[in-house]
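Feature request, filed as a ticket because there's no other form

It would be nice if the structure record came with a short human-readable summary line next to the tokens. Right now we just get the raw output. Example of a typical job, pasted below so the devs can see what we mean:
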Amino acid sequence: MVRISYLEDEPYILAALGVKISQSPFERSLEELYEECRADRSGSKKLVNDIMRKHGHFILSDFLPYAVILDELTRFAAIFIWRNVNAPNLCYGAGIEASFRVIKPIKYKEIVKDIGERAFEIYERSIKDGVFEQDARYVLPEGTLTRMIFSSPPRYLGKLANSLKDKPLNELKEIGEKLEALVKEKFGLEVQENLPSDWEFWGKREIEESISLQYEGSPHSISLNMSIKGSLAMYAQLVRQRQLLCDLEPLEGIARRGRFIVPASFSGIIKKAYKEIASQAYEKQVELIEKHDPNFVYFLLLGQEASSIIYGKGYGVIETSKARSEGVAQWEIRNKVGIPLTLRLAKYNELRNKIGPRCWREKRCIEPETFKKKKSICKAFNVAKGKWDKSLEELLELLKEPYETFNIR
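Raw output as currently delivered:
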């Protein structure tokens, strides 16, 4: 059962708590992390301002004097929430989730126990083999548990609640009902608005990969319709940007296709184990779908492929190019979104210096210091130390990563 709590404090304290939630092991309780932020208020303020100044993670300044904490929600519930919170969907909010790129998962929902145990074993084996956490997570089920902090005006908390409480999955209903009750209790409001788009559970939708970008001479005139296919792990990061609407295909279609992304870092042994657990997960997904049981979503693996149409407008498209083509951005986001989008924008000369990786735009690099044990993760940094002096196209070509896919059917 998801534990939901409400905190009131200085925005920088709640933002600092978000930073700690993002990077602290699950063994550390939320209460402990919160007290740590409160005990060193000046340190918390410095932490938040340093991150914004150095890395430009300005979401930390979106926090209000209150926030909602969701503990032991599934990764599926987290991506469902983030898919709905974005500017094109008219739902605004700031939040941070525990990052499986740096934190070892330790729990899963009881319903996925058999597959969860095996997935965690494969995950541990891959880490010992030198696979980065951001790749190792592809073998995990969406029933893996996580936690997040979320801050939003009551209107948008209410809209988010309305998007969740009528869903067929009990976990989403529970979160929606608790958010609705919270908005009534804390703010005295009963929000009737619904979101203009939603993520469907049932049905199929065929989406072919393509990109359509219109530009009328100024950055705010950009309009993007982009169809892509990528893993749920990739989408979990893409939707948290909040700039774009990812109109993901129905969940049933994702399951029935049974297609999986394989990171290039997986050894032959890990690939074999991944395919075995993918086969088990796929069989369980189809079994539950035939019973019209929505719990099939918990058996989706983070590496399972999904199709979507991405809608973006104006500077949000430029921000996506900047954030998602960086060498330290998740490799699949670079391949599927950041690089092809940047190449399309680069056709307009007046945009070329506004887009792409920082080492191209500003001739400097700060990102490799984010996670010090992974300083060599960016190939462009290894080549040019942040001072790229060749073309943008050569840089993007260097940043592409190989990967494989396989089908279970």
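Something like this underneath would help us a lot:
The radius of gyration is 21 Å.
The CA atoms of residues 76 and 142 lie 5 Å apart.
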